Structures
1.
Amino acid sequence: MSSVSESMNRRMTLGLLAGQYGFDLDPVSATEVTVTSVADDVESVRPGALFVPSEDVDARQLEQVQARGAYGAIVPHALRGQVDDIHIPLIYAEPTMQQLGKLVAEMAGNPSDSLAVFAITGKNKETVESAVSNLADFLHMLGNPVGVISSSDSQSLERFLALEYPLSIIDVQRTMAVCAEDGAAAVILALDEDTLRENALQSVNIDVLACDDNSLSNAEVTKFVSRFGCFVGKQTRIAGRTQESDLLATQASSAYVDTDSRLLSLSIAMVLAAGVRKANIKSALRVSRDLN
């Protein structure tokens, strides 16, 4: 289901949308029409939705979304004059991926702004999945309610999320909004092609980014994740295993008999990069060891 609706935090008028992004609204009298969700495929359209097709669109599809209750649609200028039988407002535009990401994030309430966002990438899908799972367990041990977005197992806290992969821009924003609404403090993203489509992370603010390959430079990691629309800015910390994290992981090995110490080390390095004090990590590892 590619729609932002379950956890909508904001409504938007078509006039505001067109004005903010420089799009052409037809008719201009539709400025006060308010959309309450965004969908990128016909089946996901609900009453009040703005239809933003992810592929080429034609009059037949517009008739379908109109019948399903859409309040508007974004269509290319090439369709002007060819859709006279469509009576919902149309916004003529060719939005960039950056514009689409910003629009969807705004409709979803910019969920990544209220979450600590961790992302893990790498060349080995299985290793990435294991690293995501290990980090989720580690953050939970530190007392943080966590959401996970991964093709192997997406969850919002303890709730399993049935998603269709790979995820689009809309899917990612919707899922993060669900996690935020459920009370998650952090969300962990698996950055791989099974989980995400190209540009799926537009307007997602990532706090800590890590790669399972410690041999890659920060520039190489940044380039590696760029296909997902992942912007690595000044606020993003790129983490990797260090001697310090390796030592802490080794010291805790008795509590993690079935866990690869390298994965635990990567989790520790990411949490340190997020600003968690080493003393708190040591204390949590000690408690976990005592319980085991």
2.
Amino acid sequence: MWHKPLHNRTKLLRLIADGELHSGEALGNTLGISRTAIWKIINSLSHYGVTIAAVKGKGYRLSRPMEFLDREILLSGISSSTKKILNKLELFEEIESTNQYLLENLQGSDKHGNVVLAEYQTHGRGRRDSTWISPFGSGLCLSARWHFEQPLDSLACLSLAVGSAVIRVLEKMGFEGIGLKWPNDIFFQNRKLGGLLIETRGETAGPCDVVIGMGLNIAFPVDFEANINQPWIDLVSIKDPVPSRNVIAAELISELMLLLDAYAETDARDIINEWQKYDCMRGKLAKLILPDKNITGQVVGVDNDGALLMSVNDNVRKFTAGEISLRAES
């Protein structure tokens, strides 16, 4: 089921995943280790963003129940049409980065249709060398690989298409009011819910390999705190109870793979029109963060190439993805 043998840390988390109290003695007996070893593992889990309460004389419990990724449940939830194009599904307990793993394994004939998920990333990445932070087993860290015969410039709207696909899945699950912030952030009421990271390898004129990384906050520990440089939110804070983490992952994989399979024949205008329905920044005053300066203006939307259009001093200017970050002005 898993790419590597499970660590005692994960075995312990599975035992207490129900959110109920479990004594150190019972946990130690089950795992065949001492109560002191249990205590050390419990303490080490704070490094992974996991919050565990110790109740004197009773034991330990998670601040919120945890659902582990399960290959069989995932496969049962993936659509039959997606299974035909899904080449490989891999699960990791811990990985440096799901995107990096796929980028480093681009060789061979199976260049597309591979999907990787992880319970935890030690070096999760976002755009512009930012860090993606997600506690162990509390969100989705997912990456997919696809091989395109088309040139790189034909993929200009891919990020927008994937963003809209995520919203479609969440809407089907009953989540309302979730929007997109150019070029690849998923937002709810001015707080970040998720994000995309699309990385390419290949020649400008094609063909090329694409890795699409997706991070989604599902149910973080109740008192989770981290050095995140902007307001954030998780799905359980929007609608509780939240759907199964495996169901969400299976639906996203299905939608993403079908999108990739059909992308070459998809009209860019249809992608733009759908994305604009979810644009949560249009008409707002915003700050554009460039490598060497910041620009303030009003967000107009996107053009037919997926570039941002912004009114700056009454002049509409065009900015391309990959070089800037967009923040709402307060």
